[in-house]
Amino acid sequence: MATDSRPDTFDSVDWDRVEADTGGVPVVAVVEALTFLAFGAALAYDYLIVPEGEPTVLDWDVTAVEWLFVAVLLLGLFHVVVPLARSRRMTAYYWRQFRKNRLAVASLGYLGVLLVIGVLGPAIWAAPNETISYAEAYAPPIFIGGDLASLDHALGTDAQGRHLWHLIVYGIRVSFEVGLIAMTLAITIGTIVGAVAAYFGGYVDEVLMRYVDIQQTFPVFILLLLLIYLYGASLFLIILLYGVFGWEGTARLVRSEALQRTEEAYSRAAEAAGASKLWVVRRHIIPNVSSTVITAATLSIPVFILGEAALSFLGFGDPGTFSWGRTINAGRSDIDSAWWISTIPGLFLFLTVLAFNFVGDALRDAIDPRSDSG
Amino acid sequence: MRWYVARRLAWALVATWLAVTLTFGVLLAAPNPGADAAAAQCASQDRDPEQCRQQYLESRGLDRPAHVQYIDYMTDLAALDFGYSESQEEPVTAAIADAWIYSAQYFVPSIIISVLIGYSIGLYSALNRYTLTDYLGSFVAYFGISIPNFWFAIVLILVVGVYFREASLLGVSLDALSLRTYYETSYGVFTVENAKQLIMPVIVLATASVASQMRYSRAQALEYANADFVKTARAKGASTWRVLVAHVLRVALVPLSTILIVDILAVLFAGSFIIEAIFQIPGLGRLQLEAITQKDTDLVAAVTLIPVFLAIVGNLIQDLAYVLLDPRIDYGDR
Amino acid sequence: MSDDQIDERRRRVLQAAAAAGVSVTLAGCSSGGDGDGEGTPGTDATDSVDEEFAPQGPGDRSWITGTTSGAQSLNPLAISDEATNNRLDLLYDPGSVTIDGLEFEGRMIEEYEIADDFTAATYRLRDDLEWGADYGQVTADDYVSFVRDIALGGPDMRTGVVGYSQTSSYILGGEPIEIEKLGKLEFRVNLPQSRGFWLSEDPIRTAYVLPADLIEKYKPFEQREVNGNQANVITQIGQDEAIVEGDLSGNLGPFNFESWDKGQKLVVSRNEDYYLSGTELDGLGAAGPNLEEYTYQVFDEQSTAYSAVRAGDITTTGVEGRKVEDVSQSDGVSIFESDFGEGTFFLSLNHRVNGWAPIRESREVRQAFAHLIDKNTLVDQIFSGYGDPIGTFHEAWGPFYPDDLPTFETGIEPAKEKFANGTGSDYGYDGDTFLGPDGEQVELKMVIDNTQQTPEIVGNYIKQRLGEAGIAVTIEGTSFGKIIANYLQNSVENNPNYDGEPSFQASGFNNGAYDEAIGKNSWDLIYGVGFSGNPFTPWGTIRALLPEQSQFNFMGYRPDFDVSGTATAAATASSEEGTRENMNELFTFLARDQPLTWLFSPQATVAYRRPVEGLPEPDSFWDRPDARTIGLRTTE
């Protein structure tokens, strides 16, 4: 097979090589399984062996949310990064498309930097509560000037003297956690439900969609209040609730898209060729609603992040974490005098949400197989 | 088809009943901080706190066993009697009706504005990708959704309500541009004063919704912007406008209707708690939160029931819209 | 919201969290801006009288008070909070109002005489008082019926009718007072105990009574259905048309009811028939009201209220100390400041067995906390200086505040010394760390109400200070409701080490001795629970909180001092001297023993938009803007 010098064409693809087998199971799948096994072991270690409140490794007491975050990152690694890495040509193509949107590229850069700061930052900068100093409360940022402003707290301090920069750095991680974990949960569940409902139709569709009806209209808020009252406001609870109750929109959207796809030629062709329903759903329907899904996914991340801020406003935020929402909310009674406490984190939140939106748009444009390269 | 619709309607009723039951269950299972606080008050007054707790629960009918409360409520409901709201001291229907008017006043204009602006930007953006105007449009659309509502509201009040009254720009006093800092309920609905005091809440809410309108309209338009039939139309000499309306929009309407219908129904019974709390508008958002935190069971049930019913009916209408607009889909054999 | 409405027995469990809100609720109480215009002598009255006030809203609305809490009901029999009280004040006058300390001025009650031995008091009502809703003239019958049927209307005449919460004021030393009618407008009350301060404590003086005929309508008292629920008499009466429509007030109050949106807005209009209007009052000029309309507007969001007063959309609102500077930046905003705030804030220490033992075992350890906490810093942080540190359970300006109290020098070193000395050999300092008997650093648990910012500030501050003294602190934030449920309420059931019946049961908050009943969760420190009572009759609050078997002794404190006896002695002393001596002794003991760490008492600050005429000079607790009659007016 001449595959080196000529560009890949349909008849020159070696289907056998496309997925290298190891006793009938793809290598990647094995690696993934092993990784998750290791993850599970570490999780078990933390929960069963390490006593409550003690650090798991070095100085870091891994919380439930952080475990979940690691799990999501691993999933992202195996289901996004790896497939991209393996199909170089496709990735290069996507990147070319994506690059056209310069704003999106800038946004991606910004998010990347933010992520790095968020992950490594806590190792460099002290926890906000360590910077409490009443003598330095309400210090304005350096570009405003004033008696209390100083380079030491260049972005100003809050009501208790906590350095705003520290609050922001620690908030990055929280925002990413909320956004990514909730999104993963919601999108996964929603996509599966929507696609299955659309394709299988009949009884399955009815049951699923009727359940979606109920969930969509169920007053999640009451449930949230109750759970918060019983278990205390915690980030884990909030993320879980957003994820578990935030997928109906996606499901309905996916279903409507999938309904159209089901009738299209390739689905029928696949059926005619003998593919099982599951195969068709997995291999044909889902990838083709992917642009919708990606749109929904990237739009949902900022919604969840902002939702957490709204919860802080209502007093249901997790007081143990330093989310941006919490800082913005804490400063809202001082907007007339110490405006930087609310506004600077607000600015970061704004830019981050904007960035996710731009990236999402560009991604959709790049991935959608039907949009022209023109 | 008719059978299908009938089934869905029947389901709407069942689902509503389910939702109300679930709500009731959750509410009754929740502890009662109000009763505890009342007991604490009494203890500090040398009175028997248990008595006070009892009195508190009794006056709200919360001391009856759960199933009794539930059955009472359901039987009343069957007779379309929604009960009496303790937290508002008026019948539930009156409380909801009053609150609804206030919510509608800022919600309806917001949705209209955000749809108009959002769709315009979205459709334009789809056909003019990667241009400066595209970026600008995106920025404008995303601005509202990227800032926390409550921050925006408070800042607006401060700037437009307080600072404008005192400040002057180039010697001209900005006082004429200033607006009320909070919502005064005694203005008539269709008066100028009322319109003026609704400007800020509408801005806050509209900006938050523009983005989703824009995004979906743009996404759908994009799907078809480069499709064959569009190319054909352009080749035949159709103007961008005609292409948009006559060709792209029609096809894009199927999923767009998803969003549109939900919007319309959302408007029927919605209230944003944040906006109402900050601008002091006695609307549905506030009502809902108060009902929950004060464990006003009758009101909570009503306030849950109505949007549930509307939403399910809304979903039904959406699904029917698919059938109408996309001839390939048929519910005949479902 | 007159101070005189502060019944000796009305103690409110304050969420000190609302310390930020305390000024507000206090302001609601003290300065919600019920304008009571006492024309200050010296003001040129003629000018202002002719001024027109610009309406601030539609129609003739001329005075709007911003507040963060709405009234719970307009039922005069069911007053459960400050806000409700303030509203009712507008509609109904009390028996008499306090001018200063023990000086009173009659309202509904024209004349009052107390027997020489303080065991009986005679009251005479004014002749020109009329109920609304066709209930006729206010007569002694109404008072008698009220006391007998409602306040003491329970089956044994020792408890009130179900739902009435003020009965305890009518019972002295376990015996109910007796009321007898002497004439159409006269009645006498016989006290089972001699009470030198009866005038100050007298609940009849401040009660809102109802027409006897109205009460008669509801006899026999039993449960009836109201709005779908079985309700007791208080609720039934509360739903009586005359009360709901607000017609009942007749000529008894400065304003007439216009409309009420619960939790939103109350509008009242001037009562042209007000019996007192035009009357010359000592030092006040003519009684008001000078306002056409008066509105209470509830704000959910504090910052909106501040913006509104700055912009001029409302006339007045209470302001937290730390926002005074910001709010007064706007033109036309003036701040009424009074040193005489109400309420005391303290840090609760757990004396029960689910807390740190040295707290209950050693006075020195408790004193160490007093050394450790710099109250001035707290006042500056939370109130921007609008507060005063206190060393005992009384407001800093209070009438009984002892002149020389044992003080505790603020500092880490003295605190460390006392921690070390007070805990014996099991504990000790290893360098900067304070180690306990297990060789590990002592760790204390502090619970705060985390729904507000103030407790968080206090919590972090105390954690920092204790940290400097070598003690670790974990802060647990939770809602006020949960604090009550999981920490304050206690019972023997939560105690695995105790079997059997508790030796006494005072209430759900004091369900047994310190080693018997404990709360669901363990705790060492709580910030967020506060008390406020009448500073002029503080014995009531003390008796409810501090004696070992009191109603609200959730801490499990066992004073080795006769708190109850001394407080009662103060209440029943036959002379001011006697009272003062007793309270002095009591407060000095409390300062030395530090059962709770006394922190500070706030000052009152209210913002007014536009020049307001008639604000009194705040020379005493009773100089409140709304103190005696609603006579404030804007002069612009």
Automatic annotation (TrEMBL), chain A:
Its main location: membrane. It is a multi-pass membrane protein. Keywords: Cell membrane, Membrane, Transmembrane, Transmembrane helix, Transport. It is found in: Cell membrane. The chain crosses the membrane at residues 25-45, 65-82, 103-125, 176-200, 220-245, 292-317, 337-360. Residues 172-360 form the ABC transmembrane type-1 domain. GO terms for cellular component: plasma membrane. Belongs to the binding-protein-dependent transport system permease family. This is ABC transporter permease. It comes from Haloglomus irregulare.
TrEMBL record, chain C:
Residues 26-68 are annotated as: Disordered. It comes from the Archaea. Keywords: Signal, Transport. Residues 104-501 form the Solute-binding protein family domain. GO terms for biological process: peptide transport. The keyword Transcription regulation does not apply. Residues 30-40 have a biased composition (Gly residues). It holds the Pfam family SBP_bac_5. One of its GO terms (molecular function) is peptide transmembrane transporter activity. GO terms for cellular component: ATP-binding cassette (ABC) transporter complex; periplasmic space. Gene3D superfamilies: Dipeptide-binding Protein, Domain 3, Periplasmic binding protein-like II. The keyword Lipid metabolism does not apply. PANTHER family: OLIGOPEPTIDE-BINDING PROTEIN APPA, PERIPLASMIC BINDING COMPONENT OF ABC TRANSPORTER. Belongs to the bacterial solute-binding protein 5 family. This is Solute-binding protein family 5 domain-containing protein.
